[in-house]
Amino acid sequence: MGSTSAENPGGVGRRDLIKRSAALGLVGVPAMGMLSACASSGGGGQGKAKAGKKTAKNPLGVNDTARMEFVLFDGGFGKEYGQDAVRIYQKDFPRATVKFSATQKIQSTLQPRFNQGNPPDLIDNSGAEQMDMGVLVGKNQLTDLTPLLDAPSYDDPGKKVRDTLRPGIVEMGQFDGKPVWILYYAYTVYGVWYSQKALDSLDAKYPETWDEMLAVCAKAKKKGMAGWTYAGKYPYYIPFSLYPMIGKVGGREVLDAIDNLEPNAWKHPAVKACFEAYYELYKKGYILQGTPGLDHIQSQTAWAKGKALFIPNGSWVENESANVIPKDFALSVSAPTGLDSSDKMPFGTIWAAGGEPYIVPAKAQNPEGGMDQLRIMLSEASSKNFTSKVKSLTAYNGGTTGIPLTPGLKSGVAALDKAGSNVVNPRLQDWYVQLQKEKIGVAGLGEMMAGRLTPAEAIKKIQGFADEAAKDTSIKHYKHQ
């Protein structure tokens, strides 16, 4: 997870942005040392373990003597949180043998074992070598996690696991219908990141309407500070604030239509209005000079050094830029600024989503054990342990009381509280990798923000890309249910 190459533009904490790889949480901690045990040995192919008896203490019916194997992606979150959760499993099932290993080579290590029919029981399918989820689902290689979601939660037998999760987590694990194939463990807040200290120095508050945004940028410019910067070489960071703004202005259905590749979805008036608003930042000279040539690290560094006020990003930015963010920066995140009072959704509407995808293979020898290990991880204690160790929220809706929160994490929690149910989760970056990254991001938004396309030209171009993807029979198409 330490790479910051062009192939892995989020660097630590994001890895390959579009593969939803490693850390989609409030994170980006430096990679810890590789674990020497590399999950390469097979599981022996002994066939499925006989399920155990379901009891109040063992609601999934785990065979308490069966071996359980857990393979974790050894990335920015490290492996300690997994090891801690395994200790709880061993305490609950003292007669069971647990094999835990961590590797960065998920696909090359595990794909052969899927093919041989002896995969592990629980996998953190993350990182640059993430196995393709669509392929795994399409080939019926995953276990439906509905029994886990319907099981009593680890802390409260009166509450199902699904009732303890953050908004959107269950839906993200679905592909065209009801089964839930993936449980995303980490949770990221996307939005507009800034220094509260810098905003205070301008005697300004965070702008809620676009007129206010332009006024704040004008104030900043007078003080020699740009209003905005962004990862110009990887302009698919721009949607982290632009997409939720489109949802705020036009309603969730506009984002759903875009995700569904519907004809003319990009020609919606809300899209036009938001593209024109962002283009105005370029036209008025409110974007840091040279931004189109900057990568994510360079743009974040310029912003952290006070050269620009706002940057669209995800919550991994706190750790990824920890070495350049000043101690008194007062790192903050806000939901995107809207247009005006006619917006369909209230100010506070934000994009937040799960990351760190966990799966239980269909041919796992002990799928009940794999699911119960996940149930343990979704307890309050395990969630708090993860958050305090790696500065990331988890899918568990809570787990932050009583632990000291870093400024960015604290701000992210406050932004989620403000959003309430107004959380949007555009799916293009999960469903259509190339479309979102190279076409909409680089060839569309990147060109518009560099002033090489007008908003109307960018919309026409992007709609063309979406239409091509809709007609492409070589890719699987998904739709919001």
Automatic annotation (TrEMBL):
Protein name: N-acetylglucosamine/diacetylchitobiose ABC transporter substrate-binding protein
InterPro entries per the UniProt record, alphabetical: Bact_solute-bd_prot1, Chitin_NgcE, SBP, TAT_signal
Keyword hit for Transport: yes
Keywords: Signal, Transport
PANTHER family: ARABINOSE-BINDING PROTEIN-RELATED (PTHR43649), SN-GLYCEROL-3-PHOSPHATE-BINDING PERIPLASMIC PROTEIN UGPB (PTHR43649:SF31)
Gene responsible for this protein: ngcE
Top-rank taxon, per record: Bacteria
Gene3D superfamilies, per the entry: Periplasmic binding protein-like II
Family, similarity comment: Belongs to the bacterial solute-binding protein 1 family.
Chief site of localization: other
Keyword Ribosomal protein tagged: no
Localization, UniProt: Cell envelope
